[in-house]
Amino acid sequence: MAKFSFADADADEDPPPAAAGSDKRKRDGSPAPDDGAAGGGPPPKARRLEVAGGEREERAVAGCGREVGRVGAGGDGNAMGISMRIDPDLLDCSICFEPLCPPLYQCQNGHVACLSCWSMLSNKCHVCSHDAIFARNIALEKIVESIKSSCAYAKWGCCELVSYTQRNTHEESCFFAPLMCPIPGCGYRGFTGRWSGHFLVDHHSADFLHFVYGQSFEVNLEASLPFLVLLGEDDHLFLLLNKNMTPFGHAFSVVCLRTGDLNWKFSYEIEAASTRNPENCMQLKASVTNAKEWEGLHPTESFLLVPYDFCSSTNITLSVSVGRSASV
Fold it and tell me: Oxidoreductase: is it a keyword of this entry (predicted)?
């Protein structure tokens, strides 16, 4: 079976701010944002596919359309392939605009869509508007199933080569997918390894706190603040959450903003001492909850509830430590 692989045509382009699935074209008849036919802008992107079998190599000079060539054998003599460029929209279902997912069926005029999409159209083709007799397109199924696509975040370090039909699913959970900065109004999207630089340049020092794993540190938090950003020594981003639970008190917990393969397990300890009698204290040990972004939701399984009478009405002092261990 032929084996295809996708790679972005422009290797020097800045990494995308969001998963590729969010840029799907719409069936409204308007030109796509990247279409430079009318405005003189750059031509639409193409992607490179590699197919087994071949000896010579040719490169296309345009970004639009497809590039076809023969790729020479690798060191083992078996890495043969044909390199070509193709508009990725051709591999998307014209009904749901998601990647074509076998089994694939076509009408008598050759219009192809996913089986699940055809079933919603009462046996009438959405393109030619005629009652259709559908036939399975096994040849196209084999092509779609053989295509391997590079992750949209390859420029940010992801080396995964995934099935094109599963590309969106992979990118939604990719470790290198950018996350939204939790500071209100910021709009920055980044990932582990760049948070420290972002906070040092774009935010005040009062907005975040650096810490070392396994070492306790003191946090003096305004009672009205919903969270404080904590940056680990490996640049993982944590939020110390503060939920005002009237009429009981403040609920404190810790979440880690990250996606993808979780190579580390995090735990935390929070201790609160009474302002009236420091010998009285409350403590919580729990596992850190993982989240892709901060949406105002608080963990419901583990949190430390500190009564109002236990702390000051304006500032709350906590002793916090975060532990890290390798995932098994």
Answer: no
The span from the CA of 318 to the CA of 282, in Å, is 10
pLDDT reported for residue 80: 54
Ramachandran angles phi, psi of 325, nearest 5°? -145, 155
Task: Look up the CATH number of the domain holding residue 71.
Answer: 3.30.40.10
Confidence bin at 57 (pLDDT 50/70/90): very low
Concatenated DSSP letters of 140-201: HHHHHHHEEEE-TTGGGT---EEEGGGHHHHHHS-TTS-EE-SSTT---EE-TTSHHHHHHH
Domain that includes residue 209, residue range = 179-326
- Cα separation, 103 vs 225, in Å, equals 52
Report residue 276 as tokens.
């009236």
Contact (CB, 8 A) for 158 and 16? no
Domain boundary among 172, 191, 210: 172
Residues 168 and 185 in one domain: no
pTM tops 0.85: no
| Structure-block tokens of residue 10 | 């422009």
